[in-house]
Specification:
This protein is an alpha+beta fold. 28% of the residues lie in helices and 30% in strands. It has a domain of 154 residues. A hairpin with a 2-residue loop joins strand 11 and strand 12. Helix 1 runs parallel beside helix 2 and helix 5 packs across helix 6. The longest helix has 27 residues.
Length: 254
């Protein structure tokens, strides 16, 4: 997450239902820093992995095209976890073409894919001999830029699992910034002060989200008159939709 040109934060969040909560972060001054250094990212992955070492969970790491390094994917695999990472179109991949009977090199964006259903390539090599994985390309009926997902897990779940990235981490960023705490307004604080404020904001985002969930489930607070849902008529059917997030519900209630 960037706060203008002032600070950069590398953060891991965990999705719970439709919500994302921050579980690890590290802040840096400015935008030209170590936030995207491999060692920094691997440190975050290791510490997140250690958090759940005593639980029988299957951790799935989701990330966009910023994080499609073979070193990152190999490290996640070495820890026994699953990854679903979106690849850049320009990344070279190598696979055996049965028709031509030899190894073919293409960019990920040049791989054939169907328009109306997803396309799978099993045991494909990324960046020559650096990583073997499955690649799944989403359908492109509604876009010219389909997802190209690398995974070491069940390729049948890759598209669905990757979709869980949305509506979680973006909401955390929004709540920290324009939707609630306006972190981007901080411009001159020291890195130590910004890190402390960021930590407190993470705690507050979690608290207010929990408070919003508590309000939504506790009928005794119905007299507070906070409008969290509205009714709409869609195709002749009455549909109730949420118009206030759990975070904003908690903030309003607080």
């Amino acid at each position: 997450m960037f706060s203008h040109e002032n600070y950069t934060t590398l953060m891991f969040t965990m999705r719970l239902g439709s919500q994302g909560i921050p579980i690890w972060f590290k802040c840096f001054k400015g935008t030209d820093n170590d936030a995207f250094m491999i060692d920094t990212i691997l440190q975050g992955i290791k510490e997140v992995s250690d958090m759940f070492s005593n639980y029988d969970f299957n951790l799935i790491f989701l990330a966009d095209r910023w994080f499609n390094s073979c070193d990152i994917l190999n490290y996640i695999d070495s820890l026994g976890h699953t990854y679903c990472i979106r690849l850049k179109k320009t990344l070279y991949v190598y696979y055996f073409d049965e028709k031509e009977n030899h190894i073919i090199r293409k960019t990920a964006g040049e791989l054939f894919h169907y328009k109306h259903l997803s396309t799978t390539y099993n045991n494909i090599t990324i960046t020559k001999n650096k990583l073997n994985c499955n690649i799944v390309i989403s359908d492109s009926k509604d876009t010219d830029d389909p997802w190209i997902i690398a995974t070491n897990g069940d390729y049948k779940r890759a598209i669905k699992d990757y979709s869980y990235r949305f509506g979680a981490i973006e909401c955390v960023f929004k709540n920290q910034k324009s939707n609630g705490f306006y972190l981007e307004k901080i411009t001159t604080a020291s890195l130590k002060a910004f890190t402390s404020m960021f930590c407190l904001v993470c705690v507050c985002v979690l608290f207010l989200t929990l408070l919003g969930a508590y309000y939504s489930r506790n009928r005794s607070y119905i007299k507070e008159k906070i409008t969290t849902h509205k009714n709409y008529i869609i195709n002749g059917k009455k549909i109730k939709k949420r118009v206030l997030s759990l975070f904003n519900t908690g903030l309003t209630f607080f």
